Amino acid sequence: MLFDGQTIQVKPIEDGIYDVVFNRKEDAVNKLDQATLAELREAVTMLAGTEGIRGVIFSSAKDSFIVGADITEFMQMFSATEEEIVEGLLSIHQIFNAIEDLPCPTVAAINGLALGGGFEVCLATDYRVLANNAKVGLPEVKLGIFPGWGGTVRLPRLIGVDNGNEWVCGGVEKRADAALTDGAVDSVVAPDQVAAAALDLIKNCNAGKFDYAARREEKKSPIKLNQIEQMMAFESAKGVIGGKAGPHYPAPMAALKAIQKHANLPRDKAIEVEAKGFVKVAKTEVCASLVGLFMKDQYVKKVSKSFESKAEPVKKAAVLGAGIMGGGVAYQSASKGTPILMKDINDAALDLGLDEATKLLNKRVSRGRMDAMKMASVLNKITPTLNYGDFGSVDLVVEAVVENPNVKKAVLAEVEGELPEGAVLTSNTSTISITELATALKKPENFCGMHFFNPVHQMPLVEVIRGEKTSEEAVARTVAYAKAMGKTPIVVNDCPGFLVNRVLFPYFGGFSALVSDGANFQQIDKVMERFGWPMGPAYLLDVVGIDTAHHADAVMAEGFPDRMTHEGENAIDRMYKLERFGQKNSKGFYRYELDRKGKPKKLADEEVPALLADVVAEPREFSDEEIIARMMIPLCIETVRCLEDGIVATPAEADMGLIYGIGFPPFRGGALHYLDQMGLDKFCEMAKQYEALGPLYQPTEKMKQMAASGEKYFSGEKA
Fold it and tell me: Is residue 447 domain-shared with residue 387, that is, in the same domain?
C-alpha cells in the first residue's frame, strides 16, 4: 500500500502501475469533500514523485464512482468573498492539473455514477473506461452553478463545442452508449471488466499503441475552431440554451459564456476564466435557492427512509376506483414492480382505468423507453376485478372513488372487512378529513390518507396523512409503498386540505379577490408565470377542474371560516354555475382545442368578460408588484400557519411539498425560503398594506415576533 487514507488508498497493481482507489471508509458512496480533496492532493503528489511509475488508474471500491462534490460544504464556501472563492477553486484546480500532468498514462475506471466533480476527476485523466450500466455527467446547472473544477474547459476540448455545450449547459446525465458516441469515454465494457480494460489501456499506451501525450495535449490546448466556426457554434447555442433555461435560471447561459470566453486559451488561463465565471453564479439568490432545495430534498428522503426502515414492504396492492386517477395509480404501481388489483363496479369503469394505464405505457414504448415485452409484463401486474375475491392477499389499498365523504365512508367500510389482518387502508382524498373518514372503520389505526397529485405518473409528491387514530405502522407502510412507486412522500397531520391544498386555496382566494376588484385574469396569469409559476392561477384552475376547485373551496371555507369564506358570488362560483369546468369540458376561463398531438391547447375566450361582468368590479389597472403581493401573501402566511399548527413537521418538508405538489417556482426555493430571502420584516411591512383585505393577509403573531428579532425559518445547511 503506497498510501492509506480515510477516503483514498493507493495500491500497486504491477510493474510500476498504481491504482488510486476512492473508498470512503465511513460512507456508502464516494464524494469530494475537503478531506477527500486533501487526500487526493497528497496521493497524486506522492505518485508524481514515484520512480519508475508507468501508469495510474483511478477507480472506486463503492457501487458508484464519485457522486459529486459534498453539497453540504457549498453554502459555507459560497459565503466567502469572490476573491476567496476564486482562490479556493484555483487551489483545487492544482490537484486536477496534477492528475493531468502525471508523468505516465492515466485511466479512469468508471464502475458506476460519476457526476459533477466526480466526472471532472475522470476528465483530468487521459482515458476513461465506463461500465455499460453506469452514467456520467455534469449536472451543476441544476444547482444554479456550473462545473468549477475544469469541466467547462476539458469537456468541450474533448468532445467538441456543440456536444460540450449540451452536456454542460443542459446538466444532463448520460448513459454509457451516449457517452461513448459523443467521445466522453473511450470504452464501454461489462461492469466486471472495467478494471481489466483500464489496465489493458495503460499497457497499450506503454507499448506505444496509443499516444496518450497527444491526447493530453489536446485537452490542454485552445479549442480547435477558427473564429467563424466558433461564432456559429456559440451564437446558435445561445438561442437554444437561453430558451430552455428561461429568464430565471442564469447558470446555463453563464456556463456557455465562460466556455466561449476561454475557447482560445490554454488550460491554465482557461481555468481562471472558469473560476471567475463560477463565482458570479455561486453568489446569486437562485444558487442559494437551488442548493437549498437539494439539501431539503435530501432531508425529506432521510425522513421517509426512517419511516421505510420500520415497515414491511407492500408485495401486493389494490386500488378502488378505476377512473383516470385509479388507472394512474395502477400504472405507477405496476410499472415500478408492485402488482395491483384495480376494482370498480362495472366493466366500463375498469376499461377506462386499463385504457389510462395502456396509454401511458404506449407513450413509453413510442419514445423508446420500454419495449413491447416490458409493456406486457407491466400490464400483467394490473388485475382488473369487479369483486373482492383476491383482496385477502392485499397489503395496502388505495381508495380513489369520488370526492364525497359519504361515498368514501361506505366504500372504506365495505373493503375493510375483506382485508387480511394488518393490511393498511388509505384514501386518496384531496380535502376530506382522514379523522372523519376513519369514523366508518372498525380499525382506524390501520387507516391513513395517501393523496396523489394528478397526473399521477408525472407529479412526484404523495401526501401521507396521519389521522388522530392512525398508527405509526400504517404511516410507515404507506410511506414505504409511495417510495416503492418512485414518489416522494411527505407525512402531514390531518386538517382540511392537509398541507398542499390548504396552502393552495388561499392563493386561489387571492386570485378571486383580485378578479372581483377588477383585475384582468389574463394579466394575473401572465404576471404569475413571469414570477416563475408553470401556469397562472386561472389556467391552473382550468387544469385542476373548476368543479373540483369549487368543491374543495367549500370544504376549505367550512374548515377555516375566519379566512377562507367569501361573500357573494365570485368568478370561480360563476364558472361553476355556468358549467365551465375547464379542460375537462373544453371551456373555463379559457377555451381548449386539441392540438396535433391530442393535447388541449389553451385559447382566449372572448365570451368570458361578459360572463363575469356582474360579479366583478369595473376593470382597472394593477401593477405587477401589487398582483404578486396579493397572490403570494396569502400563500406564504398559510404555509407558516401549517408549520405553526404542526400540520407539517419542518420548514424543509413544507417547502418541498409546495415545490413537488403545486409547482412553486424552484428558483425561489419554496415559500419559507422565499420569506427568508425577502426578510420577514419586509414581508410583514408589505402585508400591512393589504391587511384591510382580511385575515388571509394578516401575518401570525409569531411571524411578527420573528420579524422583530430578525429570525429565519432556515439557517445553515437547509437554507
Answer: yes
